[in-house]
Amino acid sequence: MRGAEMENIHLPVMLREVLEILAPKEHEIFIDATLGLGGHTKGILEAAPNVTVIGIDQDPDAIAQATERLREFESRIKIFEGNFSQIAGIAALSGTKEIDGVLADLGVSSLQLDSPTRGFSFRSDSFLDMRMNPDPGIPTAAEWLRTTGQDELANLIYKYGEERASRKIAKWIVEKRNAGQPIESTFQLADLVRRAVPRKPKDKIDPATRTFQALRIAVNNELGILDQFISDAVDLLKTNGVLAIITFHSLEDRIVKHAFQRLAGKCQCPPRIPQCVCGAAKKVEVLTRKPVVASAVENSENPRARSAKLRACRKLELL
Q1: Of the candidates 185, 200, 172, the residue with the CA atom closest to the CA atom of residue 122
Q2: Distance separating the N- and C-terminal Cα atoms of the chain
C-alpha cells in the first residue's frame, strides 16, 4: 500500500490533542506502545527535530506497513514486535533507560478492523480469529467458543461487553456446538446474537457489537495487562515525562482513570479497610481531570474517534 493511500484509510485519533499533551521537543525520546500503522508516531517525529520514537506492535502486518510509511524517518525510529505489556523489556532491549513520553492507543487498529480475514468485524464474513498477534500458540475466538464453559462464556460477555443478554447468548452458542454446529464465522456469531438480542428502534449500535467486543478483549487479554502496563510506563518516564492513553470503551477508560488516581496518591481501597493495601503513592500529576474527547470536526471525518477518550499524567520528581 502506498503512503498516500495509507494516509487516506488511517487517520490517527486525536493527533492534535496527543501532540499538545506530549509536546515533543528536540532530541526527546518517546515510546509508541501501540504503533499500528504509525500515524501517531509520524506526528511525533514531525513535531520537532531529532525526536526518536520506539514503536511497539504485536501485529506483523501492521509493523510491515508502518515501516514502509515511516521509511523517511528510519534513522530516528526503532520498531519492535511485541505486546505493549512488554514495554519495560523492549525499552531495555533498545538501550534506552529514561523516556520523555509514552503513548498507547488501545483497542483494535484500523488495519485489523478493516481486514476481511482477521475476524474482528461482522461487516464481512470470515473465520472468527480476533487475535491481534496471529501467533499459532494463541487461541482464536472460534476456539474460545468451542472450549469455554457456558457460565464462563456468559460471564465474560457480560463483563467485557456489558451485554445484559449474555446468558441467553452463551446458552445458544453452547447449544449450537453440542449439536455439532460450532460458531466459527463472524456472520454466524452476529446472526446468533441478533436473534438473541432483537434490535430496538432507539439502538445506535448493532446488537452484535457488545459480544464481539467482549470476545476480542478476552482473546487478547486486553484488560488483564493494562494496569501493569501503566505502572511500567510511569516507571520508565523521566521526571516531567508524560504518559498519554487513548481508550475506546468504558472498561478501558475506568482502568486508566483508577490507575492514574492510585499513582497520584489517591487510595483505591474500600472505605472500611483500616489500612491502605492498594499501593497508592504520589508518583504522577493527572493532567486530564476529565477525559479529552475528539472535536465535532474530527468525529465527522473519522467515525472511530467518536468513542475515544484521552487521559494523561505527568511524572513527578520523587523525593
Answers
A1: 185
A2: 50
